Amino acid sequence: MDIRNPIGLMFLILGLLMAGWGLITNDNAEMYAKSAGTNINLWWGLLMAAFGAFMLGLAICAARKKAAASGDKSCGSGCGCSK
Amino acid sequence: MSLALGGHLAEAAAAASRVSLHPLDYSIMALYCLFVIGIGFALKKQMKSSADFFLSGRSIPAWVTGLAFISANLGALEVMGMAAQGAKYGMLTTHFYWLGAIPAMVFLAIFMMPFYYGSKARSAPEYLKLRFDEKTRCLNSISFALMTLLGSGISMHVLADTLRQLLGWQYDTSLWVSSVVVLAYVLKGGLTSAIYTEVLQFFLIIFGFAPVVILGLKEIGGFSGLTEGLKQVGARSAELGLADKNLGEGAWLSIWSNMGSTDTNPMGIEWAGMVFGLGFVLSFGYWCTNFLVVQRAMAADSMKSARRTPIIAAMPKMVFPLLVIVPGLIAIVLHSQSDKFKYEIPGKEVKLEAAAWPKVATALKEAAAIEGKDAIETRKAQTAVLNKAVGATLDEVKVAKIVAAAKETGLPEAADKQEVVLTSIRNAGERDYNNVISSLVFKYCPTGLLGLALTALMASFMSGMAGNVTAFNTVWTYDIYQSYFGKNKSDEHYMWMGRVATTVGIVLSIALAYVAKQFNNVMDMAQLVFGFVNAPIFATFLMGMFWKRATGHGAFVGLLCGTMTSALFHGCTLVSGGTPGVKGGWLAAIAGKEPVRFASEMAQNFWLASFAFSVGLIVTIVVSLATKQKKTDEELTGLVYSLTPKQKTADEAWIMRPAVAGPILLLVAAALNLYFW
Q1: Considering only alpha carbons, which residue of chain A is nearest residue B204?
Q2: What's the CA gap between B554 and B559, in Å, rounded?
Q3: Beta-carbon neighbour count of residue A10 at 10 Å?
Q4: B158 and B54 in a common domain
Q5: What is the pLDDT of residue A68?
Q6: What per-residue confidence (pLDDT) applies to B497?
Q7: A-chain residues within 8 Å CB-CB of B39?
Q8: What tens digit of pLDDT does each residue of B613-625 get?
Q9: In the predicted model, what is the mean pLDDT of residues B451-460?
Q10: Range(s) of the domain holding residue A63
Q11: Of the residues B502, B518, B534, which one is the last residue of a structural domain?
């Protein structure tokens, strides 16, 4: 198992969840008074989702590279495919 | 939440502590638990032999073992403890990193890892068996097994207790639920799932706590605001109750320039004790010999990866002070300007019944009559009187205010007015620095982020527990069970035993958590045990790896004498103003003599470690010279420096070679020390 898969997936879900929550509560000034007026849920959620996607991307690349190395022709274009 | 007005900070803190979480916060926690348990189940298929279960089949890439290496240490001690120390001692706390951990990790990578990994020992105690003899291993494995159980028990106690205070959760529920989660994934996936979840926890902890640092810095005006605030803290340290005199502007800021004597810095230690005690003995003892962390490196897929593990770990470790110490610094700055920022470092709970009024009234009268030499002496004496009356330790600054108010207005007759005074005393418990990080989380995190930060807190405790439990089950199964109870059993049997040990280990941890709940000073006792064990064992490993003449008898007697020196030293010394007991001085009290006094507990700990190490080292050398080396040079090949061929690193990229990357890390650490001099 490549640990980047679960890490990526978890942060992607967590990030989207928080960003979504941030969007819903965007007008709630009282709630964000705590975080200095910033909609921290939205921004931090997006950052986490991006990190999750990056980790997933790395894992997919590594999996493709492995497939390519073992002579699997099915690997499409893009990262990891040695050509 | 507009409660935090004026002087009602304590009530606000009490109200905030009853914050109920939004379903979203719960979902974040649930999602995390689902993922860590899922990782355990996904790895179940890979657990085919005991080597898979205990050693991850030596198949983990370096970046994963590297992150797990620091994450296993990122438990309660690190996250809560370092923030606490940051508030108490300021930038001096960075010595745990830039003076202690980094050099120790580099030393481990360059010099010690080849013996751990290359000897094919399955645990640190087993290395001692290969290098010395059975009795040395026995002594080390038993003390280590006890230490890990104690470590995970205390960690779980602190978690359950924190969740109880913060969220009003049932102590038993949080304790059992979090233990069952850890049990589930360790049982299924063994060391591999502990390591994998540690990496996940590593990122979660960063994402959970970084917003607190960012928002905190934003509020106090960035790093320049922090610097300015810390100058004020140092200049007003007596008034704030942080020291017995104003230590000066640099006290919370500079890390070396106030180390000339014990009474010019908040830690109460001079440079020699710091460098030798913390920088050398305690840090090297922990990072280089503690199987809890070393086990992560030993699970690496090759010697190259094993040596890279501490190097990779050292990189994030270098910047971790930003994440774990800076919250403490922010907290103390906020606290020092509590009127402006509406924040105080939370106080410990003080239980006081209304019926206690007559006792309190007498104490207040007595305290009001006290006229000390100066304000500090007066408030100390007043606090002592009130502490005795309420049976708790109170905050000196708050006591001084309460007594002054009582002096001015006289003691009230009406019951409701008396209740006001009692409440002010209930809110005057001594500062609970361990709650610095959680109080900041509540201050800055809105729903959503709050769930994330609390999940990060839980993750840090769980990673601490899983680390301890995986180290425990390995040492128990290989070093204790296989050696003494079940020799020559099948591999399946040992794997079964590993699962049993995991379960028993967790049950014992839970039991120890309940013991911890009964005793206020259990953290002190645990620190004591760690101090007793860690310092002398480093002498044993050091001699074993670098002096081929060291014998089994020498190592065993040295280790024993070192540990006894710890106990003796502890029994004869005490922090100034302390009373004999768990903090030391008991032996002197029995003998009816005055114990040797140290300026601070830190100083006492560091010197204890230094003495225990030195005695352990000297006795090992003397006894080794007096006894015959039973191991032949051949047997010691791969176990001792002078008899082991040098590691070949020519095929590695030059920057990744430990002998290159290590010194670069040391230079960076040195530069940081100079910068904050």
Answers
A1: A11
A2: 8
A3: 23
A4: yes
A5: 83
A6: 92
A7: 1, 3, 6
A8: 999 999 999 999 9
A9: 91
A10: 4-69
A11: B518
**Structural domain count of chain A:** 1
In a shared domain, residues B451 and B468:
yes
Range of the domain at B392: 354-430
pLDDT, residue A69, reads 81
Q: Which two tokens stand for residue B145?
A: 């097994």
In a domain, B668, yes or no: no
For chain A, the average pLDDT equals 85
B458 has a chain A CB within 8 A of its CB: no
SS3 content of chain A, % helix, strand, coil (to 5): 65, 0, 35
- Tokens at B502, concatenated: 């995991």
On whether residue A58 sits in a domain, the answer given is yes
- The angle subtended at Cα B527 by Cα B599 and Cα B203, nearest 5°, is 115
Query: Looking at CA atoms only, how far is residue A39 from chain B in angstroms?
Result: 9
Closest CA of chain B from A32, distance in Å: 6
- Are B209 and B326 a contacting pair, CB within 8 Å? no
Q: Flag whether B674 is in a domain.
A: no
With CA atoms as reference, report the closest residue to B547 among B535, B536, B555, B537: B555
Token pair belonging to B538: 């480093």
For testing contact with chain B, the best of A2, A4, A10, A24 (most B CBs within 10 A): A10
Query: Is residue B652 situated within a structural domain?
Result: no
For testing the chain B interface, which of A3, A32, A43 should be mutated: the one with the most B CBs within 10 Å? A3
Q: What is the ipTM of this complex?
A: 0.90
CB spacing of B218 vs A40 below 8 angstroms = no
Is B196 in Cβ contact with A3 (below 8 Å)?
yes
Could you give the CA distance from residue B334 to residue B586 in angstroms, rounded to a whole number? 39
Q: What interhelical angle do B303-324 and B326-336 show, nearest 10?
A: 10
B106, containing H or E segment = helix B102-107
Chain position carrying tokens 């050091």:
B542
Percent of chain B whose pLDDT exceeds 90: 42
Number of domains in chain B: 3
pLDDT at B610 > cutoff 70: yes
CATH code (residue B181): 1.20.1730.10
Helix (H) or strand (E) holding B255: none
Q: Which residues in chain B are closer than 8 Å to A6, comparing Cβ atoms?
A: 35, 38-39, 42, 196, 200
- Least-confidence region, from A59-63, B11-15, B510-514: B11-15
Contact B448 A51 (CB under 8 A): no
